[in-house]
Amino acid sequence: MTREFYHAQIYEPCAEVDRVIDADAVDLAGASIMGYGWKPKSPGDLVRVKVVVPAWSAEPTSVVAALFVNQSVVPTKLASQELAPGKVGEAVLEFEMLAANTEAIELEVRVGPGRPGVIYLNGNENGPNPDMPKPTLTIEEYRPSRILPVCTGLTSLIAIYYLTVNAWKAALIGAFVGGSAMLGYGGRWVLIGSFAIAVLAIAVALGLPPPDQWLQLAHDAQEAILAFRTSR
User: How many CB atoms lie within 10 A of CB 172?
Assistant: First the structure.
């Protein structure tokens, strides 16, 4: 994959946050600390977002980071980390999505304690701490490789044609597999399926009976088992 876009943002202020973010969080929960908007370079690009929020608390609680995409009312993703009194802990949130088109994508990061209480960013109850890690937002946009989907589609086409000797079926399945891989739909499963079909075709080439004989073989095996049981 080729990286098309990169953005990194750091939250600098020392902040005290007491607005809770819980399982029923909405877009007004917690405090907004970072955000960014941009237009993807191409439809189908893979967008990766990573949010890291270090926090400090004097009391046992947790720090929760919430990611809102395109002004959604509820968080697209949540991440939390328990905080021990007087210790720094960090919530790490990772999110991936495919750009459906080139319309703008708006991201907002909100932070808050998971339970009633106070958490501190870039400091503690005594003020700023320059040695404390700062909250960050990282956005990366990747353009998927076009070579792999083409190879996947061709592999499926050749394997299906070898197994079925049907050009229309082979072309249809090959186009579906290649198109799905190119658009990023079920990429892992498409590749696994294509590999499995290729392995099956190789096995048939090495002597395994072709698929059109499997039903008859299963029927023969069933009859053999029944005959063996009857003869006992």
Answer: 13
